């Protein structure tokens, strides 16, 4: 097995069980692991901070919004290491398309550590329960009209059929700098083209001065595939879809049976 000096890990479906609790063996495993362990997720900073605190990872970078915002906590809030904001005109075009053709799709807008919504609905409540966050209601157009505002990600949620129809519609449209991908079968994430966990792995490896071939990446879903393929050691969770497993070097246990901890322990035997 390749030498590993840096680990990049997904959160939901990887570090967290299906009950949204942290892998019970992970804290002890990380205590024995001397190499940096970095979290990479589609979550916002606020959605990641409780996990960072519980695992004692405050000194490590945090990859938010799949790499659209990479930060490091400080005593007051956080320092920005890198960020990639969406072009506002692309956001306006997207919102108009959803309003006219997909009015039942739940839309969340993420700016730095803010989670913004225009209306509360079933999907917003479900996401709030998962992330332990509370969104702020606002008028999107008013928010976007402020010249200094930045949007790092949009999250579109509905049933899987409607989200796939929306995905096909957006792919047929023209945008300036816009990427859309499924993080779950009914979760459509919107970021700039430069944002991916693959690119985040490159940025984190450069931050630690670790060659890519000495990195390990672990994940469970489609947005983890490029990161898993790039890493020196790419590991898929046992609960991952078949396409993710095929992209990996090997497969660990699922997220309800300490798959993340077991993968790390296996790597450092």
Structure characteristics:
2 domains, 35% helix, Hypothetical Protein, Haloacid Dehalogenase-like Hydrolase, Chain: A, domain 2, six-stranded mixed sheet, 269 residues, 10 helices, alpha/beta, eight-stranded mixed sheet, Rossmann fold, globular, 23% strand
Structure description:
By secondary structure, the chain is an alpha/beta fold. The chain has two domains: 6-83 and 195-268, HAD superfamily/HAD-like (Rossmann fold, 3-Layer(aba) Sandwich); 88-191, Hypothetical Protein, Haloacid Dehalogenase-like Hydrolase, Chain: A, domain 2. Helix content is 35%, strand content 23%. It contains ten helices and 14 strands. An eight-stranded mixed sheet has the order 5-4-3-2-1-12-13-14, sandwiched between helices. Strands 8-7-6-9-11-10 form a six-stranded mixed sheet, covered by helices on one side. The longest helix is centred in the middle third of the chain and has 14 residues, at 88-101. The termini are close together. GO terms for molecular function: magnesium ion binding; phosphatase activity. One of its GO terms (cellular component) is cytosol. It holds the Pfam family Hydrolase_3. This is Cof-like hydrolase.
């Amino acid at each position: 097995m390749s030498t590993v000096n840096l680990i990049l890990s997904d959160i939901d479906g990887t570090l967290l069980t299906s009950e949204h609790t942290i892998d019970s063996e992970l804290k002890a495993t990380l205590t024995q692991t001397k190499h940096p362990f970095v979290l990479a997720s589609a979550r916002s900073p606020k959605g990641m901070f409780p996990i960072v605190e519980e695992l004692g990872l405050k000194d490590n970078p945090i990859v938010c919004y799949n790499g659209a915002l990479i930060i490091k906590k400080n005593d007051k809030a956080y320092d920005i290491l890198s960020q990639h904001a969406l072009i506002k005109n692309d956001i306006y075009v997207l919102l108009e398309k959803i309003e006219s053709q997909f009015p039942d799709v739940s839309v969340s807008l993420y700016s730095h550590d803010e989670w913004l919504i225009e209306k509360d609905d079933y999907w917003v409540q479900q996401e709030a329960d998962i992330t332990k966050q509370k969104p702020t209601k606002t008028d999107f157009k008013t928010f976007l009209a402020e010249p200094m505002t930045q949007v790092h990600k949009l999250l579109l949620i509905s049933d899987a059929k409607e989200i796939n129809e929306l995905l096909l519609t957006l792919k047929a449209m023209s945008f300036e700098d816009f990427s859309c991908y499924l993080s779950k079968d009914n979760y459509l994430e919107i970021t700039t083209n430069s944002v991916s966990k693959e690119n985040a792995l490159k940025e984190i490896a450069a931050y630690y001065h670790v060659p890519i071939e000495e990195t390990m990446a672990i994940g469970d879903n489609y947005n983890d595939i490029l990161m898993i393929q790039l890493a020196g050691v790419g590991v898929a969770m046992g609960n991952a879809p078949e396409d993710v497993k095929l992209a990996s070097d090997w497969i660990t246990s699922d997220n309800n049976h300490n798959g993340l901890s077991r993968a790390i322990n296996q790597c450092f035997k």
